[in-house]
Amino acid sequence: MSTPQPLLILTPDDLLAERWRALSSSPIRATELSGLDTWRKAGHRLVVVDLGGYPPAAPPLWTQDAWQNNAADLAILATSSRPDDEEGLAALNAGACGYCHSHAPIDTLRQALEVIAGGELWVGRALLSRLLRLVDSRLPRAGLADWARPLTEREREVAHHAALGESNVAIADALGITERTVKAHLKAVFEKLQVADRLQLALRVHGVR
Amino acid sequence: MSTPQPLLILTPDDLLAERWRALSSSPIRATELSGLDTWRKAGHRLVVVDLGGYPPAAPPLWTQDAWQNNAADLAILATSSRPDDEEGLAALNAGACGYCHSHAPIDTLRQALEVIAGGELWVGRALLSRLLRLVDSRLPRAGLADWARPLTEREREVAHHAALGESNVAIADALGITERTVKAHLKAVFEKLQVADRLQLALRVHGVR
DNA sequence: ACGCGACCTGTCCTTGTGGACAATGGCGGC
DNA sequence: GCCGCCATTGTCCACAAGGACAGGTCGCGT
Questions:
Q1: How many helices (H) and strands (E) does chain A have?
Q2: Which long-range contacts (CB under 8 A, 24 or more apart) does A37-45 make?
């Protein structure tokens, strides 16, 4: 099922444009940001744009006039080949309705377009979960109970300390046991959670893919 | 287009269940939270649940065992007839993959289910835009890529790799430089960001206090 | 031309980490 | 009583990480 609405593909990158052609039955291609003007005036809404397609030296697309003047009336899916939380937030705050990877699976892009065409917002899993964590300072433990599930009580404690960056000695000290014991617990934790080291453990515990 | 995957409808409210029946070709209905157990064990993933369907006096669904034990393996769309930011955040943090109004248009619900079935997260426009504004205003510059500001371009790259848990050799390999150089960059990063080691760096980069 | 900063590389060296062998005592289920 | 799981501690060892010296090139601005 392809997007029923007319779609504007906005990127100077020919390869990307070719790839995106599958997003709609008959997409229109533009390479200049000014294409947004004519698109809006033609009464259309749906746009997919590659933020990273222009020289890094240039000012971000969303700060330019053509964007500012039209974003409110359009449904813009902003994409980047090197996604970055900061960039995504900026684009969304500047009126974009979605943000994801330029080379995301074509089905994902299509889904994102359908979502923003329906008036909703689209934010990729990574950025969204990051946002949730940022806003919600309180319940870090409730939802993360899943990583702790296979662990014993003691292992949980050790893992928790280790995930905050404490050294083995510090953990041993805090729990009143030997460093050797901490190592033993951590070994078990690594095995049960299928991680290689304490850094991977920290990422898992704090919900980073 | 209805959801191809089997769907579990979880609510004690008969009217709501009837309404939701259109979400899938042959949905399964359950009224007790324990239905999550059997659903997961049957190898299914997709669930839509009404958070508000139970007595207000009862503890929130997401704090109960049946939820905690199964949320990680399921794709749960939580809904509420009286949506509330706090509730939504709590549910999402407890492992729900989406949050919206119980009586949202059936097409919207269907779209939300498709999205979470695809492994993404779904947050309605209202809550999401509030989130964005919150993040934008409350942490304007303590924001996301704040850590990267004092760093040079190369240091940023190295720091980014290191924060994902890659070893010095792996980073060197990825960037086409020597391990020694990676160490040099990391030393500069540690100094500039005032952190002791790569784990603290990872925590900083991923926004853990 | 000179200084400065970014980037890159080299050789020690100390310490932390994690794995590979162990062992001991307690406690609950069959 | 035996078996399995948990918690605890021991030694030895290979290796990664990070600090402390060192050095080099390149480009850019004064």
A1: 11, 6
A2: A37/A66, A37/A69, A37/A70, A39/A8, A39/A70, A39/A74, A40/A70, A40/A73, A40/A74, A44/A5, A44/A6, A44/A8, A44/A74, A45/A5, A45/A73, A45/A74, A45/A75, A45/A117
CA atoms within 13 A on the CB side of A38: 12
Q: Which nucleotides of C are covered by protein (CB under 7 A)?
A: 5-11, 16-19, 22
- In whole angstroms, give the CA distance from residue B64 to residue B25: 29
Nearest CA in chain A to B118: A108
**Structural domain count of chain B:** 2
Q: Which domain holds residue A28?
A: 7-134
Residue A136: pLDDT band by 50, 70, 90 thresholds?
A: low
Q: Which residues 147-166 in chain B have a CB closer than 7 A to strand D?
A: 162
The whole-number mean pLDDT for each consecutive block of 10 residues of chain B, a chain of 209 residues, reads: 77 93 92 90 93 70 82 91 81 88 91 92 84 64 66 92 95 94 96 94 85
All residues of chain B having their beta carbon less than 8 Å from the beta carbon of residue A208 are: 164, 206
Q: Do A48 and A102 belong together in one domain?
A: yes
Element (H, E) at A129: helix A125-135
**Three-class secondary structure of residue A156 per DSSP:** helix
Tell me if A194 is assigned to some domain: yes
pLDDT of residue A144: 45
What b/e sequence results for A135-164 when a residue is b if at least 16 CB atoms lie within 10 Å of its CB, and e otherwise? bbeeeeebbbebbbeebeebbbbbbbbbbb
Pairing type for strands B7-10 and A98-101 reads: unpaired
pLDDT tens string A20-53: 999 998 889 998 888 898 999 999 999 999 987 6
- Sequence-ordered list of residues with C-beta below 8 angstroms from that of A138, at least 6 positions apart, any chain: none
Q: Which H or E element spans position A50?
A: strand A46-50
Question: Is the same domain home to B24 and B87?
Answer: yes
Q: Name the amino acid, one letter, at A207.
A: G
Q: Quote the mean pLDDT of chain A.
A: 86
Q: Is A63 helix (H, G, I), strand (E, B) or coil?
A: helix
**DSSP states along B41-73:** HTT--EEEEEGGGS-TTSPPGGGSHHHHHHGGG
DSSP letter assigned to residue B144: G
- Please enumerate in sequence order all residues whose Cβ is within 8 A of that of B201, keeping only pairs 6 or more positions apart, or say none: B159, B162, B163, B186, B189, B190, B193, B195
Judgement on whether residues B76 and B109 belong to the same structural domain of the protein: yes
